[in-house]
Amino acid sequence: SAEYAWWTSAVVYQIYPRSFQDSDGDGIGDLRGILRRVDHLDELGVDVVWFSPLYRSPQDDNGYDISDYQDVDPLFGTLDDLDEVIGALHERGIKVVMDLVVNHTSDEHPWFIESRSTRDSPKRDWYWWRDPRDGFEPGTRGSEPTNWGSFFSGPAWEWDEQTGQHYLHLFSRKQPDLNWENPEVREAVYAMMRWWLDRGVDGFRMDVINLISKDVGPDGALSDAPVASGLYGDATAASANGPRLHEFLQEMHREVFAGRRESLLLVGETPGATVEDAQLFTDPARAELDMVFTFEHMGLDTVDGDRFQHRPLDLRDLKATLTRWQAGLAETGWNSLYWDNHDQPRVVSRFGDDGEHRVASATALATVLHLHRGTPYIYQGEELGMTDAGFTSFDQYRDIESLRYVEEKRAIGEFDDEQLLRALAFGSRDNARTPVQWDASAHAGFTTGEPWIQVNPNHDRINAEDARADPASVFHYYRRLIALRHDDPVVQTGAFTLVWPEDTEVYAFHRAQDGIRLTLVANCSSDTVERDAAELRVEGASVVIANHDDPPQAPSGRLRLRPWECVVYRVE
Ligand code: ISL
């Protein structure tokens, strides 16, 4: 049978260091805090830990604005502390993946300080500097070189008085975009990546890696983009999947990974990528990336992909989207699988039921995800069934994206405060950034000081200590799901077939390989449902995993599923 890469049986755990565990009482998570929780990761059984940025940073975007790629921010500790954490994880057989943020740096990175100092700086061309548009007073609205909007509201160009030009920033003005057209930039990035691999890290999660190649005309010109909604042109259209993207990734592969990539993990974050793009990124023969994060399933409960505008999820859309990605990467390439990360609201609040059926819906959704073909990613707290933040006032929010959104919407008078609070409560990234709930004590055991963002008051009921003591907890269920992926080749690589695409409540699919079939059936609703079990062909099957006691055994007639009940059957 085929040879598969090690990560087909691996599960990755994401740590957002700021919110994981504080050790020194400053209210911000840190490396010595992580050291105290290594046993939690070990007990869970994950194979890889991905760290959101730990590098030196002004923290304008919580570390995704980097001012020194080869040092640790003092907020989190020192390089020695990081070595200790990596050592402790490696000792337990857990690999370490670093976040790689190279579409942009901080404006406080020495490269940018040099670049902005004068027009003749040798590093001027390391970033995107452009003259103001003709016919507009330089530095005023309309003088931006293109109409592109920033992902964090406002224009994607910042006027620099001193040298009389604008610089490009697709994210905040403190995150200027690097110019990947310049070979010196690429060589500097590759050298930095080799330095980390030499230090012992096991791979990279590459932040917005499909934005690095901008669509430049022959004369270096950038053009206006279509205005989909709001004030600005769509910067994704102008910068995602640019003409040299695959060339850059293949070059990176040759310069950084060649000869040492067998045991590495290379995962790209690729907003806007289609499954056809993903086939190219992840085809091993092309030597680019191992897998990418799709965004398509994250937009399904929003209005036109606007993360702040909610509409109810139609389960058929979720099935159709994930199934398209399963099919598209069945022969070549590979999927990554995720519900939660530091940019997304919590799945149990979003697609599940975080009230009465919290445990059942968290475990049912986990089963649906982890039984797909691909590498599952768990975001800190997901394994506890942590819920959205539940914030009700503006001063509770910290995220730059949320704060800028409110500012812009207020400026144009589009929404009143009630509408804005509803938008944030649904879509804010802060929903996933409240501290991990370790126990029921003050601040959930996260810090002895004042947490940088409020702890969810539901930590009195939802916390790791209680979960560890309760065999029916979300935590113990995740342990079983992870063990199942480790042990069962059908979970790892079996062929995927969806059942009942039109069912709006029940998610069901088969995975099959070498004459063995696993069949998952999950009630993704808060009502009891009944279906015709004959269509599942599970008569005489054994139960592999289920999230309720006494699951329906090998039914042949009517299959009755309680709210959010899921079962995986095994047919030999
Ligand atoms: O809409 C988007 C782009 O089309 C955004 O959602 C974008 O994909 C996303 O915000 C990118 O996220 C990553 O890069 C950001 C950082 O703020 C996020 O935390 C990170 O995950 C800038 O580095």
Q: Layout of helices and strands, plus pairs?
A:
Elements: E1 12-15, H1 31-36, H2 38-44, E2 48-51, E3 55-56, E4 68-72, H3 79-91, E5 95-100, H4 110-117, E6 129-130, E7 157-160, E8 165-168, H5 183-199, E9 203-206, H6 235-239, H7 245-257, E10 265-269, H8 275-282, E11 291-293, E12 302-303, E13 306-310, H9 315-328, E14 336-337, H10 347-350, H11 358-370, E15 375-379, H12 400-411, H13 417-427, H14 464-469, H15 474-487, H16 489-493, E16 495-499, E17 506-513, E18 516-523, E19 529-532, E20 542-546, E21 558-561, E22 566-571
Parallel strand pairs: 1-2, 1-15, 2-5, 5-9, 9-10, 10-11, 14-15
Antiparallel strand pairs: 3-4, 6-8, 7-8, 12-13, 16-17, 17-18, 18-22, 19-21, 20-22
Helix pairs in contact: 5-7, 11-15
Family: Belongs to the glycosyl hydrolase 13 family.
GO molecular function, one term: alpha-amylase activity
InterPro entries: GH, GH13_cat_dom, Glyco_hydro_b, O16G_dom_2
Q: What's this model, at a glance?
A:
The chain is an alpha/beta fold and 572 residues long. It is built from 16 helices and 22 strands. It folds into 4 domains: 11-101 and 335-487, TIM Barrel, CATH 3.20.20.80; 110-168, Oligo-1,6-glucosidase, Domain 2 (Oligo-1,6-glucosidase, domain 2), CATH 3.90.400.10; 183-222 and 233-290 and 324-331, no CATH class; 495-571, Immunoglobulin-like, CATH 2.60.40.1180.
